Amino acid sequence: MAEDSDLEKTEEASPKRIEKAREEGNVPRSRELATCTVLFSAGLGLLMMGEQLNQALKDTITSGLSFERALAFEPSLLLMKISGMISTLLIAFAPFALLLIAVAIASPILIGGWIFSNKAYLPQFSRINPIQGLSNLISKNAAVELIKAMVKAILVAFVGYMVISNDMEPILSLSLMSVESSISQVGQIMLMGFISIISVLVFIAAIDVPYQLYQYANKLKMTKEEVKQESKESEGNPEIKSRIRQQQREMAKRRMMSEIPKADVVITNPTHYAVAIQYQNDGNSAPIVIAKGADLVALKIREIAAEHKIVTMEAPKLARALYAHTDLGQEIPEALYSAVAEVLAYVFQMRIFKKQGGFRPEVPKSLPVPEALDPHSLLPVKGVNDAEVFA
């Protein structure tokens, strides 16, 4: 059952899947929307340029019906006259034709946008496969397209019938009218028919566009296995990434451990945390944390510190504050300057005492650590409150 669910396309298409489909020329398209847009533009163009086109057509017909005697004896003159008439019509209708061409090219922007893909024009043997072609003919999509075409034809025919039946009396009386009146009457009937048919096409397009978007999204849906595979390809195998992160942590830990011999002091809590501090007395920088860790890592830090005879001081609040608020290689927070300064002063005094003797320096008590920097400030802390030193 789990394998069957993984093979079902239940997941929405990822951005990568959609981008790949666009690269292959696979975008949502609505023929009904394109047809409606072109017809609407044609009607608008005729409304704007109808008088100029009518006048050009009238002049051409008038010129063609006039016949001079010389044309009967000079075929070249007749050809020149015909070519001139054709040129006049082409020039007159050129703006209208350019409008329709521009709208036909720009109509895909309305759904799916423009797409330029060479892959869509590459030969595919599946397109000439008769079995594949037969399956496409009896597919669900083919049935939907057939029903849609039938509904469109029925609606357009019904609207045309209604327009003609409502204007049947004016149509039958056209022969009794003058030429100008009959032309005007025919123009009004054609205008009403055009508006009615466009309204039907707008209605069909309003249904077809959401359906095409739904079909496109449904076609690009992915199985759970495909989602996992794509995630692996784009982000890498999670197991490999986990191993890489683990190796990086191990390398960082080894680098950190190699820095501990450079420390001036290791501050502990007393067993859970350990933070190694180094201070370069150049007058320009504050002490920095060169190593820190908790539990087993803290134990390892203390062991390395003991091997290299680095002073280890128990200061629970200070250790917790340094561990929580300072990263490796980072200077200690300004609020901890005083506490760390007391610790370092004690460490440097101990170095002098071991070399020269004299009075043994006292371990600093009650280090000034702000409560806000101690992660356990709201909890009762058991153990040593004053600092203890292990040199």
Task: Please explain how this structure is put together.
With 391 residues, this protein is of the alpha+beta class. It has 13 helices and seven strands. Strands 5-4-3-6-7 form a five-stranded mixed β-sheet, with helices on both faces. Strands 1-2 form a two-stranded antiparallel ribbon. The chain starts with a helix and ends with a strand. About 2% of the residues have low confidence.
Compute the separation of the termini in Å: 65 Å
How much helicity do the residues have?
55-70%
Our Rg estimate from Cα atoms comes to 44 Å
Question: Helix tally?
Answer: 13
Strand content: 5-15%
Low-confidence stretches: 380-386
Number of strands: 7
Principal-axes geometry comes out as rod-shaped
Structural class: alpha+beta
The main pleated sheet reads as:
5 strands, mixed
Summarize model confidence as the mean pLDDT.
Answer: 78
Which series of helices and strands comes N to C? HEHHHHHHHEHHEEEHEHHE
Strand order of the largest sheet: 5-4-3-6-7
Summarize the structure.
Helix content is 61%, strand content 7%. With 391 residues, it is of the alpha+beta class. Helix 3 runs antiparallel to helix 4 (75-106), helix 3 packs antiparallel against helix 8 (179-219) and helix 6 (140-166) packs antiparallel against helix 8.
